[in-house]
């Protein structure tokens, strides 16, 4: 076979593969559209009752509960979408419809199905429906091999708000990709003060993302019990991002006792991002104890650090504002006064 024939064969093979992919996409889209059309047709007779139920008018509940076959399947699919949008009695009644149709029992079975898609859908439904005895299944799903299943389980955990899920959730967020840090943090914040010991332990986890999320939640939830671990993180964690998050958490907790530690980490021998975070955290604490440090930082060679110091100084009270007025000719001080004025005008 000549070189020309080989090239022609390769081009033909590529063309066939591209044609196959195009046909696969078209087939998939057509199948989806046909499935959606069938669902719409099956749902049409009860759509009004479903909308009314979601709006808090339960007159159509018996019709929805007693539906069977394709109509029941269509109702279940629509109800799952509505559960993320409604609360209170309408949500309770939607869950009752799903239970009567057997959807919740099927979800429990599918939570361990070999299909990744079915596992992900199942754990998401169990969370949306707040199925109390599904905690163990969601805990297992948080450590699933598939990233999309772990993400669905984290989403479910935010609805269940069961403190027992805090430990597996924090372990999972540190394993590869799959669970966005923000989603994990939101779920943890729903679990209440009982997770304080778990957060403290997580700040010693080998995974930086786990330590970072734990530090963020400790600050956002004002977990004073976690102050010893946060102090340790800001001073010695090998990951600068974790140290920055610890600084922000200390600022959010806002105790005067942390001013000295935050001040030490604004010094020039510290990483730039950490210095900036500590300057900002000092403003959140709002303590006059930070006054001298913040005044010195107004002249720092890092312009962004100087700006943050000015904004923080304005938050420490009248003495801080007076110091800014005295240094109005400095760019950072002048900008801080403008920002403070805009904020005051917007109140």
From TrEMBL:
SUPFAM superfamilies, per database record: ARM repeat
Q: Name one Pfam family in it.
A: HEAT_2
Enumerate the SMART domains for this protein: EZ_HEAT
PROSITE patterns with a match to the protein in the record: HEAT_REPEAT
Keyword annotations from UniProtKB, A to Z: Membrane, Transmembrane, Transmembrane helix
- The answer to keyword Repeat applying to this record is no
Asked if the Swiss-Prot or TrEMBL record annotates the protein with the keyword Lyase, the reply is no
Record Gene3D superfamilies:
Leucine-rich Repeat Variant
Bilayer-crossing residues are 6-28
* Functional description taken from the UniProt entry: Catalyzes the hydroxylation of the N(6)-(4-aminobutyl)-L-lysine intermediate produced by deoxyhypusine synthase/DHPS on a critical lysine of the eukaryotic translation initiation factor 5A/eIF-5A. This is the second step of the post-translational modification of that lysine into an unusual amino acid residue named hypusine. Hypusination is unique to mature eIF-5A factor and is essential for its function.
Q: Provide the protein name.
A: HEAT repeat domain-containing protein
């Amino acid at each position: 076979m000549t070189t020309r024939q080989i090239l022609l064969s390769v081009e033909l093979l590529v063309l066939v593969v591209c044609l196959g992919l195009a046909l696969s996409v078209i087939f998939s889209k057509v199948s989806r559209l046909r499935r959606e059309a069938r669902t719409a047709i099956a749902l049409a007779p009860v759509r009004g009752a479903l909308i009314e139920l979601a709006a808090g008018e339960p007159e159509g509940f018996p019709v929805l509960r007693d539906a069977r076959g394709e109509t029941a399947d269509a109702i279940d699919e629509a109800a799952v979408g509505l559960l993320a949008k409604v609360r209170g009695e309408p949500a309770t009644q939607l869950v009752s419809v799903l239970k009567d149709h057997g959807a919740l029992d099927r979800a429990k079975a599918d939570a361990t199905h070999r299909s990744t898609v079915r596992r992900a859908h199942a754990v998401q439904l169990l969370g949306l429906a707040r199925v109390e005895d599904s905690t163990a299944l969601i805990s297992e799903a948080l450590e699933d091999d598939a990233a999309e299943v772990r993400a669905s389980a984290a989403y479910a955990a935010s609805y269940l708000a069961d403190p027992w899920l805090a430990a597996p959730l924090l372990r999972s967020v540190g394993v590869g990709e799959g669970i966005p840090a923000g989603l994990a943090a939101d779920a943890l914040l729903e679990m209440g003060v009982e997770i304080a010991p778990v957060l403290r332990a997580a700040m010693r986890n080998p995974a930086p993302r786990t330590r970072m999320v734990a530090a963020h939640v400790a600050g956002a939830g004002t977990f004073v019990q976690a102050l010893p671990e946060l102090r340790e993180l800001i001073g010695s964690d090998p990951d600068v991002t974790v140290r920055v998050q610890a600084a922000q958490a200390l600022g959010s907790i806002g105790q005067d006792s942390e001013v000295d530690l935050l001040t030490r980490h604004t010094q020039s021998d510290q990483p730039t991002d950490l210095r900036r975070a500590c300057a900002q955290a000092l403003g959140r604490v709002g303590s006059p104890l930070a006054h001298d440090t913040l005044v010195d930082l107004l002249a720092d060679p890092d312009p962004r650090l100087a700006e943050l110091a000015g904004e923080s100084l304005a938050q420490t009270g009248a003495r801080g504002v007076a110091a800014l007025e005295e240094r109005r000719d400095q760019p950072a001080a002048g900008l801080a006064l403008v920002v403070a004025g805009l904020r005051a005008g917007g109140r």
